[in-house]
Model the fold of this input.
Amino acid sequence: MSAYYNEIDPYAADWLRNLIKSGHIADGVVDERSISDVQPNELQEFTQCHFFAGIGIWSHALRSAGWDDERPVWTGSCPCQPFSQSGTRKGVLDERHLWPHWHHLIAECRPSTVFGEQVASKDGLGWLDLVQADMEGEDYAFGAFDMCSAGFGAPHIRQRLWFVADSGDTGSQGRVSGRSDQERQDQHGHVGRSGTVVGVADTQFDEQRAGRGAGREDQARDERGFEPSGRGAVGGRAPTNGFWSDVDWLGCRDAKWRPVESGTFPLVDGSPSRVGRLRAYGNAITAQVAQGLIESYMETTDV
Done:
């Protein structure tokens, strides 16, 4: 077996098995035990390990980015409830703070590459500081990014903290690619504290983002039938990209419009397993954002 999936929710675990059987994600086994019960020696036979696996989005994103199923990697999206603004905000005192258990497995097994994600909040940033300190203490190069799904064409924000840790260039900050900070600065502009690029100059992109150029907004309105801001006729579709191009917008009682997959009404009476489905969707990461992170990492390391 090439992959290991750790997921305690029975509904999501069954979903994973169906995805594996259908070939949608990497072949492997699903373990429904708590991560606290998993021992390092049990993971040695697996090429890829996905913790808090949910419905397998990390595996799907890896494949979409061109990451081979036989290429080693670990992924995980630790529970966000202890650090979410909408939760109890107990932080590291919450029993659902499971990073220490994952960190233990990482330290013992030493995977070459680790991808992860957490909610973007003040408490989430504190969590990320802990993760970075722990990973750098294990001699991993570490990079973190604050990205939203809307930046990848989604009709929702879903702001999240993403990170990648690499053991191939131990002990050096800002050199995940193996290039020096000066080389990265020459190529990208400015290098941040941990080697992350915090500013990239692109005049053409800046002009487009600022909406410069005669008639751009009018052209967008004429060709697509809605305002560039996304507001259009009642019941119309917003200017989303790629996967979300056919999204439907539902008018809600609070006078706000919310996007749903075209033709999908998960709360309708009689919808099978709607609670389990909604829980799984709500806990899932956005595949396109994860794919973008993985592709960017591959661009800097596969040289």
Q: What stands out?
A: DSSP finds nine helices and eleven strands in the chain.
